[in-house]
Amino acid sequence: MDKVISAQGLCLSYNKDEQIIVDADLSIGSGEFIFITGASGSGKSTLLKSFFGAIKPSSGSLIVGGVEVNKISASKLSFLRKHIGIVFQDYKLIKEWTIEKNVKLPLIINGYAKDVSDIQVEKLLNHVKLSHKVGKYPLELSGGEQQRVAMARALAHNPILILADEPTGNLDNYSSRLIWNLLEGANTQLKATVLVVTHNIPDNLDVEYRHFNIDNGSVYEVC
Amino acid sequence: MKSVKRHISLILALFSIVITFQFYTISDRVLNAYESNLNDNYAIILVTDKQIKKNTFTSISSMIKDVEEISTKKVIERLQSQMKQRHIDLLKLTLPHFYSIKLDHFAKPDEVKKLRKKLLNTRHVTRVEDFAQNHDALYQLLLLFKSVIILFVITIFSLTTLLIAKEMRIWQFQHNERMSIMAMFGAPVWMRSSILFKDAIIDAIIASALAYVTFTLLSFYKVAQYQLQNIGVNITLFDPIQDGMILIGIALTLAMLLSVFIVIAHKEEA
């Protein structure tokens, strides 16, 4: 199995005085489903951010999709992110764009032809049960609907890695179930590696997963 | 609606800057034309005891644009009926030569003083009349007008700069979020900045078009032209091609500078 994420002695910090992640060793293979849990402020989101280069390691090595994040250049960072789909707890949708344009964003960035991306967006909006909301802007949707748009955006370009930061944190049961189904589908059908940061792992998942926990800065696998 | 509001605030800021610039240009044209008029009507009168060649004067100072001898014929003709021919002939021999000296610009009082001194030191020059009192008063008035206009421009420019600075902060906030989201999906710098530049170009074009229409209407407004003609000033208030190009150039440059600043100052959300 190819490694998608490999970390050795990984340390993450926002300033010199405070280490958030200390000496973490991780090896995540292609097509795996990963959960990262931990208490609030334990560094789950920080660790996730390091996987798409938003935070560079203070020491140790981190390789994502074959790209060494420590020494990453702007062009390599852009290349790496083009192959990642990200879902945030606060959705991070572009408010002045319609939901179709938001979903289309990774397709535009990856240079997909207009007709191809139009079909893909239509398919995805159908998939997240939002085809009837075409033409709406994010602020015209409920939180659950916005997260479904964010999910569709993360899947639009068939990424090799999907990073989700508490994707169901503020959602109702219906939307939560839909999000988990989409993540499972991305993993089983698209063979994407899925890495989810969450407080609670849902009980009724149909996929096999690995579970890491963060406690006091150290990352360890829960058997 | 939000997007329209966002555009309007930058358009207004750019519009006020280009309007101020064009008003300054018009005021400058009016003052220059007025100054030129004053200079056309101003001359130094010189009295010499012997006829002097024109190039003698022009070599005295580069400020001297033209020298014209004032004919004494009319004075003599007027006296001919009252005097005997013998006396007239004698008068013709003893009458000094008069010259009117035109300058190439409306000189400062100091410059006039220096020129007067130089002229008085020239051989055969017996008297110089520079009408200093009248000239100095007009010069001071012109200087006052210029100062008032510069003060006005500085005030408006400072206010609009503050407006632009405030606008820049709002813009920075609005575009930062979108640019950060685009960056998270791997958009290169040019792609995430392109919307910002597109917005800036559109706003600059709208602002300069509004200014263009305003000044085109003003140039059709006969009262303004008529009032200027009354003080002997005949200028083009607004040149649709040259001024139009300058207006759009200023608006585009400012909008581009603003955008470049935002792109440089952009910090990705971590």
Commentary on this structure:
- The complex is a heterodimer of chains A (223) and B (270).
- Chain A is α/β, with parallel strands linked by helices and 223 residues long.
- Chain A has a domain at 1-75 and 195-223: Rossmann fold, CATH 3.40.50.
- Chain A is built from 6 helices and 10 strands; from the N terminus they run βββαββαβαααβαβββ.
- Chain A has helices at 44-51, 74-81, 99-109, 114-127, 143-155, 173-188; strands spanning 3-15, 18-29, 33-38, 59-64, 67-68, 84-87, 161-165, 193-197, 210-215, 218-222.
- In chain A, the strands form 2 sheets. In chain A, strands 6-7-8-3-9-10 form a 6-stranded mixed sheet, sandwiched between helices.
- Chain A is globular, with a radius of gyration of 17 Å.
- Chain A starts with a strand and ends with a strand.
- Chain B is α+β, with helices and mostly antiparallel strands and 270 residues long.
- Chain B has a 4-stranded antiparallel sheet with strand order 2-3-1-4.
- Chain B has 2 domains: 2-37 and 138-265, no CATH class; 43-130, Alpha-Beta Plaits (2-Layer Sandwich).
- Chain B contains 9 helices and 4 strands.
- The A-B interface holds A 14, 49, 52, 54-55, 74-75, 77-84, 86, 92-96, 105-106, 108-110, 153 and B 2-3, 177-178, 180-189, 191, 268-270.
